[in-house]
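Field reference: sequence -> structure
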Amino acid sequence: MENINSERIKTMLDNLISGICAFSYDSASKELIFDYINDGAFRMLGTTRALGEKYITQHVKDMILPQDLPIAAQWLSDILQDNGDEETIFRYVTFQGSLAHMRIKGNLYSRQGSIHNIVCTFSDCSEEISIQYETEKELNFMNSVVGYRTRFDYLVRTDSLVIHKNDDPAENNEVFIPRYLSSETTHGIHPDDWPLFSEAIERAMKHPCKDQIDYRVREAAEGGEYRWYQCNLMSIQGNDGYVTHVLGMNIDIHERKVWELMLQSRANTDSLTQLLNKGATENRIRSAITAHHSKKHMDALMIIDVDDFKYINDTFGHLIGDEVLHFVGDALKQNLKGIDIAGRIGGDEFMVFLQNIKSSADAETVASHLQDIIHTGFKKTEVADHLSVSIGIAIGQDESEEYEELFREADTALYETKHNGKAGYTLSRNTPSC
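Structure field:
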């Protein structure tokens, strides 16, 4: 390896089919400067270095489709958080004027003040995207024609349902269920999905419409596994102007749905800690706050910051630093209720949303317990001596309170904890009396 000089490395990089570039970004002036672009990048974009270098370095934003600029901006913002490799796909215009898809993956490798040095690889994935689109379109068409497993007819006036199964046309696979919506059973539909399904039928009962929902149905009467189905609903109007029937066709989408959920989970998951990432954490908390407004539940938003994490990284190495973050993530997962929300929102910063607590004392108990677990539970003693967390807590009880307000209160409380010596927690000064 010692015999490979920098010129030979540059030649090898230039001969790659995919693009490689290094650039610096000034977060203060928003200026972007390209330090290196390999020849493979220009071949991929359909131009030569002589023609393309000046245009790319001065007009790179003009190459990205305007609708996809927010995607590229979010990718850059995620890289600046220094959470590891970040990957995304956006559309761009080639030098021949055609629209293409680019997959880009980047990493922050150094930072000096406001200057962030970033290296990234990128490749054209237009063919892959095109194949996926055509395959999905064909699959959806075939399912809509011949892929249904069951169809049903809900008789509005008698509250009864007739199910026609498609397993064996030679047999009579018709099932009649009286008192369908008014009964207390979910008829094999997953309890979490039954409200969605029944509400869709009730909507279709009110006026003629078409609807589509995904829901899970148990395969066997007792103890069977649930499978995902897509239900296409259509209501039929009688001569008197009222809806008399709601027709439904169920298509088995289990494998596709499981794959989609897995991709969604990966997109929402922080790769190091396996907690929710920043975007998913914020979205889940916003949804929970909205749901609780009508129920007037008391909740707590906690921001947790690992004290002196830079010192741990610099002293014991980045691998130990990653172990610390993974350990903190596990501590949160193992010591919170199932309904609580936990995520990693920055390099060494976490957020927790405690749902339906009885008083602010519950949040303090959780904060104190987490601090004890994190400070004493790390296996490497020499690191554990330096490991602690600071916590800021905001209590939400007012039904008009929003996520941004709770976050500001918790962030201010965290600042007070840091100012008062770290390794502790602080309740927001706006905490309601309990």
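Note: The chain has three domains: 6-125, 147-254, 269-427.
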